[in-house]
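Side project, low priority. Logging it here so it doesn't get lost.
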Amino acid sequence: MIAIRKCSSLLVSASVVVLLAACGSDDNDFTQEPPRADVNLDQLAGTWFGTFDDKSTVRTFEFTVDAAGGMTGVKLEGADQGLTGSITKATEVPRAFRFALTSGSTPVATGMMMVDPAGAHMLYLSEHSEFGVLQKGAIELPTYALTDIDGAWSGDTLQTAPDFTTFAHLDSSAQCAPTDPAPPDPTSQCTATIDSVTRAISNVRMDDPAGRGRFISTFTNDPAVPPGDFAVMRAYLSPDKLFAAVWACSDFRPFSMGSPEGCDFSAWTKTQP
């Protein structure tokens, strides 16, 4: 596990679905970031839409949540999956929730959701390493560009253990800009701060042929916490492009097999373009 921590407990709840939300109006009005308040279960009520990555293909993803935390209408690419679920409030960290999805009486996935203070965006991670980003009330995806990742971001980072029983929460932020000097194939680069660790993120580029807001990069940490030849980071932008759901793994191979150990998960709101 990447050893970035404030405290000794850094475990997370089963199959993580992290919902983190970002603020921002349709006109991309970047104002001072609001206080980072907690979010109650009933504030999740509404229809959520975004993208879902099953470790290979990015697809549209949506579901509806009621005021009691019931999940219905789970769809991929507009096709109903026949699933229902329940969401409960997690108490270990603010703005965090656990969920379970079933098909009839058969368990399908568990995970965790964490939302921004406005309850408007979500980072999603399941026990199968299925990862997604959603926005409440969105109905379609925009056209994404590499420059959408550029700007200032801030929010939360979670670390997990394989059993996902508890969370370790860290404050984090990032600043991204076009790579200078520009390479023949344009990329961006970012500097992130995760608690006391500085992360240099390089070779940021769009990674999804369908243009659905997935960005891939590599990274190193200072102080040097493990990442090596297999260190990979991916970011997924919300439909309004104002929220990024991010996973970063010192070795992506265990994550590709369903284990979050060695990874951290960030939910960042864009604070400046």
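Brief comment: The longest helix spans residues 252-256.
Revisit when time allows.
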